[in-house]
Sequence to fold (641 residues):
Amino acid sequence: MTDAAALAADVGGTFTDLVGWDGSNVVTGKVPSTTDDQSAGVVSGANSLDIPAVRFLHGTTVATNALLEHRGAETALITSPGFADVIEIGRQDRPSLYDSFADRPEPLVRRSRRFEAEAGLDERIGDAAAVAISLLYGYENGDKERELRDELLQRWPHLSVSLSSEVVPEFREYERTSTTLINAYLSPETGSYLRKLVARAEEVGLPGAIDVMRYSGGLMPIAEASLLPAAILLSGPAAGVVAAAAVGELLGRDRLVSFDMGGTSTDVCRIEGGRPEVLYERPVAGYPCRMPSVAIHTVGAGGGSVAWIDDGGSLRVGPRSSGAMPGPASYGHGGTEPAVTDANVALGRINPNGTLAGTLPIRADLAQAALDSIGTRLGLSTAETARGVVTVVEEVMAGAIRTVSIEQGADPRQGYLVAFGGAGGLHATALARRLDMAGVIVPPYAGVFSALGLLLSPPRADAALTVRVEDRSHLDAEIAAVVDTAEQRLAVGGAAATATSAYADVRYLGQSHETTVPYAAGDGWEALLDRFHELHRQRNGFARPDDPVEVVTVRAESVGRPMIEWSQLPEVRAMGELDLPARTVLTEDGEVTARVVNRLGLAAGDEIAGPAVVEETEATTYLAPGERATVHESGALEVQW
Fold:
C-alpha cells in the first residue's frame, strides 16, 4: 500500500465513472448508475477496482437531482418582519422575456411555513425537517441568527438549520435568502446520502474519510459537504473542467471550451489562461444560488437523449433521457424509444457488434427498430433518421458552446474544444468545425475524465464578505481579512494552503451589477480600477473611466495540493493490437469504409486520418473524412482538419 493510493467516483445520470490510482498506475471502470441509491453503485464499482486506497474522492448529483425533482426536505423559513415573501416576490423579472407561458418555479417553502422572527417560535416550525434563517443585515452580524438557531435546536433537536450569515454572508436579500433556503432544503437528503455512502464504504473496507467535489472546482471534506450542500451542486462536472484545464496547460493551449457529453446531458465551460470561468451567482433549477461556481452550462443532450416528433411534425432530441434503465434501445434493457446512442450505432460510429464499457452488448437490431418507429412517421429511412438525430442534437450542443463563448463576448475561433465523456469524441469535431474552432483535444481516459479530474482537483475553500468600499483606505485590510478566512477554512478541513487568490466585486456607482476583478493586497487602487475598466469594456462593450467606482464584496479562494499532478500519470505506451477490423460508416455523402483503431495501441506521434473510429473501453472518437488526429506524448489526441 502507498499513502498516495486513492479512488475517485463520479456519478452521472447514466453511468458512474471510476478511476483508481495506486501511486504509479491508473485503473478505470464504468458501471451503470444506481438511481435509487447512488451509494450502492459507487461503492460496488469502486470496490471492484481492487485498489488499497487511503483516500476516496466523490462527485455526486444527489443535491442537484433533489433540487431539480423537488425532493428536498419539508423546510421552514424565518425572516425579518415584512420579508417572509421575498422568495416569492423576487426581482419581478421574467424567466423568459418573450415567452408568456414561462413561469418561475414554485417557492421551496409554502406560505404557511414562512415565519417572521419577531413573532416568536411558531409550533408549526417543529413539523419541518429543516429551517432556513435569513435576517436583514445578517451578512454584517450573524449574532441574532445564531441565537435563533440555539433556540430552535433547544426546542426541536431534530431540525437541520441553515443561517444566511454562514451560508452566504453577502448583501442582496432575495439572493441571500434563496441560497440559504436551497441549502436548508437539501441538507437532510444530502446528509443522509453521504452518511450512507460512508457506512457502505467502510463495510467493504474502503476509506470512510471521503472528500466531495464542490461547485467551485475543488474538494471539501464530507462533513462540510453535509452541512453545505448548496456548494456541491453540479459536483461531478466541475471536476471535468479542472481536468480539461490541466490537459490544456500540458499541451500549451490556453483558450479552451470543455465539452463533457455523457448519457444524460452535455456540460460546457470556457477556460482562459488555465482558469475556468467562475460565477458568483447563477440560477439552479430556476432558483438563484449565490455560491462560487465553475461557469458550466448544461443542456439536456446526451447519449441517452430521446428523439421525438413535436406537434408540428419536426424531429426533436432531448431534454428527456432514457437514463441508465432502460437506457437507449440498443442497450437491450427494454427501451424502445430512439436515443442518440442508437443513432450512432446505426451510423456505424459505435460498433454495432461491440460492447459498451466492456460489458454491455450492443443490439443494433433494436437501435434500428427504435429509429424506424419515428422515421416511418417522417418518411425517412433508418440512415436518414439517424443522421437527422445527430444533426439536431449537435445543434443543441453547438448552442451551448455559443452560450459560454460568443454570448459572453469571447471568440471561440482561436479556442480548442476539449472533448470527453463517453460520447464527447463522437460529436466533437462536427461541433468545433461548425463554430470554426481551431481544433479538438480528446484527452486520455476520456470516458472517465471527470473521475480523473477528482484526483487532479485541489482541496479548496471559498470566502466572501460584503464591504462597500469607495476609496483605497480600507481595501487592503478587507482583502487580508477575507484571505485569512479562506485559509482558515481550508486548514479546518485538514489541508494547507499552497495558493490563495483574492478578488473584488467592483461597479460604477449606481450600477446594479458587479464585475469580479482579481486583486492582491498591495496592488493599489489604481491598478484595481484599470483592471475593472478593461474587464467592463470586454464584457459590456464600454467603460466609463471618469465615473466613480465602488467595491461591494471581497472574495478569496484558497487551494491546497491535489491528490496527483498530471505529470505523475504514466507515460503513453502502445499496448496490444493497433488496427481493428474496418467497418462501414454512414456519412452525409454516403457509405465510407472507416479505419478502426484501438486507442491503447497508439504511441506518441502516431497519426490517424479520417474516416476513422478510435475505440477505447469507456469512450469512442469519430474522425470524419478530411480530419486527422495526432497522438501527443501525454496520450491526448489533437484533431485538426
Notes: The chain is about 30% helix and 25% strand. The first strand starts at residue 6 and ends at 11.
